[in-house]
Specification:
Largest sheet of chain B: none
Shape of chain A: globular
Number of domains of chain B: 1
Radius of gyration of chain A: 23 Å
Helix content of chain B: over 70%
Oligomer: heterodimer
Structural class of chain A: mainly alpha
Number of strands of chain A: 0
Strand content of chain A: under 5%
Structural class of chain B: mainly alpha
Distance between the termini of chain B: 64 Å
Number of strands of chain B: 0
Largest sheet of chain A: none
Number of domains of chain A: 2
Order of helices and strands of chain B: HHH
Radius of gyration of chain B: 19 Å
Order of helices and strands of chain A: HHHHHHHHHHHHHH
Distance between the termini of chain A: 52 Å
Number of helices of chain B: 3
Largest interface: A-B, 9 and 7 residues
Amino acid sequence: MTLVFGVFLLTLLVIVAVAIVRSTNLFAAVMLSGIFSLLMAVNFFLLDAADVALTEAAVGAGVATVLFLSALALTAEHEQVRPGGAALQWLPLVVAFATGGLLIYATFQNPVIGDPNAPVHQHVAPWYLENTPELIDIPNVVTAVLGSFRGFDTLGEVFVVFTAGIGVLSILGLRHTLVEMTSAEIDARQRSLRHHLIPRVVGRGMVPFILLFALYVQFHGEYSPGGGFQAGAIAAAAIILYSLLEGDDRGRALVPEWLLQIMVASGALLFGGVGVVCMLLGGSFLDYSVLAEVPSEGQHLGLLLIELGVGITVSGVLLTVFHAFARRASR
Amino acid sequence: MGVVELISFVLMTAGGFCVFVGGVGVLRMPDLYTRMHAASVTDTAGLFLVATGLMLHAGWSLPLFKLVAILVFLLVTSPTAAYALANAAMLSGHPPAGVRDETVPSAGRDGETP
């Protein structure tokens, strides 16, 4: 049954991917890529990777779609037909087919999914599964692996997100020059959903629940799928929803830009800082066991803090990127 | 199979049928508004039936309350999304097929004979 459903999903994925490539309407392409991400999330869930599925659904299908749309507001709705030789168009196709063929060829050597003798289940995974209850004492092994055993990798990921935020800011401008707004520009700013009563009332009602859910995902990550990355994306989605409904200026009044910049930096700093505190207390970098008398409680505290850092940075970066696009679009 | 499971099975099948009808409607209706109508109305009904069926299946447990939460969330948001989409389509100049109203914003009125 799972196999049938998996084949069905993968077929849909291929169809959607082809539709994205063939669509010349960029708006439709963005929507299709959101659907692609959602299908991918279901696919991950089918493979029992609930944490990854949650991330894909929150970031890929949710926030990324909105970011694409706000970027689309800066450009045209339709793809421009590029004048170019036929060879220029055939080359990407050949490259895509060659890469795809190689990847399919590589899968022939792969073990069957779920095969207990597969190398991936023989390497460090059994060790993590065996030692998580004793060393870290939390039910969600994924969080244990991400936050503690491989905390250094996650720190790197946070800094990737941090760097991306800095990159977008340096391209799109940190501070907008204060230009006197003409009435046309004010009109453009009013183009939010502020005058549409039904979406506004319903959407505003949703915002607190989305934020509550974000907090749940954030602080329940040790017991169920979730954690800082997902929670950060969900919290950012709530604020973005508010900005879409009430206008970008009110969204920025709610979470001002100076606060966002502090969030972007402080989350990454908190993560790194926990690592340094561990060193000062005599452990090694990001070894949370030294944070409390009982090693497993120290792990709990460390995980809580670093997940908080991840969440703060992720939501800060996503909101910064959204505002950077939205501000340029409304100018 | 108990009575509850039987009812749950019937409800979920009816829900699936509703969603299917919605899909057929999307393919066969003439313009955007009727298509959306087909999709959103049947989806809401289908969702209600499927979720109720799953609730009966779940019994008194935590999933029951999660299903209630999901149901309430979707019952509120899905008609809102349908409204917003129809509204946006209207504002960007797509009048319903066969309607010629002077209050409808331009587009589509040009080449028509009076």
